Amino acid sequence: MKEPPFSLRDATVAIVGLGLMGGSLAMALHAQNACRKILGVTRNPATRQAALSGAIVDAASADLTLAAEADVIILATPVRTILEQLPPIGAIAREGTIIMDLGSTKLETTRAMEGLPAHVEPIGGHPMCGKETFGFDAADADLYRNAVFVLTPLARTSTSTLAFAGSLAGTLGARPVVLDPARHDKIVAAISHLPFALAATLMRTADELARADDLLYVLAASGFRDTSRLAAGDTTMMLDILLTNHENVAAALRVYAHHLDELAELIDRQDETTLRAILQDAAMKRRKLF
């Protein structure tokens, strides 16, 4: 197999999906003049126009075939869309093209990448950053700065492609971390996907209680705002994440439910001693993290 002979500076980069992640990536590459050319693929005509008029991309199209001229193709769409796009992308990619995805789950995408033609170089990626807002209008050139950028190479991924992906992450101001896809999915289920599920459930619970008292949302302040923030995220993206990492997310939810049931029982019994110990332990561990 021909290994990528190019540097990022000399590369044409095609970004498929110009929402929050893809749009931010395009803006970051453009701001630093980091590559030779940026191509954008999106079905949204308003996004294409905005990216072109702001000179964020050099060319834009709704057609995946625009990516055929790229040295690097980065899929920044929801996970199940990535799975659908990989076969046609593999069919048009030139020899030595790097194909990377930015999906939030990695086991299914890297397994699908194994089926790509032998002449392309696949690698999985997941930048650990985001917002509760989404779409190109929410994109930010600094989104990736200081974030961990997980890389999940396949067995067939060459050392030069892994080095290229690490260099790309560094150019964005991120810190590359190499992980096994299965280990990645188990970790992010606990620290990324579970929090979204909890925020969505919090909103459902509050809304149910608000039906009995219309002052509930009037009194809601920063605590409720901060803990429910993730529920406002991109529904399609999060649904894809939950369904492509279902075993890990369901397991994490069951562990959480156990602790929640335990807490409810202690509160109901007014067991102040045990409650204090649990809350103090949680507070101490949270303060050490950040």
**The top level CATH class name of the largest domain:** Alpha Beta
How does the helix and strand content classify structurally? alpha/beta
The rough form would be described as elongated
End-to-end gap = 44 Å
Q: Could you provide a short overview of the structure?
A:
The chain is an alpha/beta fold. It has eleven helices and eight strands.
Which features characterize this protein?
single chain, 290 residues, alpha/beta, Rossmann fold, 6-phosphogluconate dehydrogenase C-terminal fold, eight-stranded mixed sheet
What does this structure look like?
The chain has 290 residues and is an alpha/beta fold. The chain has eleven helices and eight strands. The chain has helices spanning 20-31, 45-53, 79-92, 107-113, 159-171, 181-210, 216-219, 222-228, 235-244, 246-269, 272-289, and strands at 12-16, 37-41, 59-61, 72-75, 98-101, 121-127, 148-153, 175-178. An eight-stranded mixed β-sheet has the order 3-2-1-4-5-6-7-8, sandwiched between helices. Strand 5, helix 4 (107-113) and strand 6 form a beta-alpha-beta unit. Helix 6 packs across helix 10 (246-269). It is elongated and about 65 Å long. The protein starts with 11 loop residues before the first strand and ends with a helix.
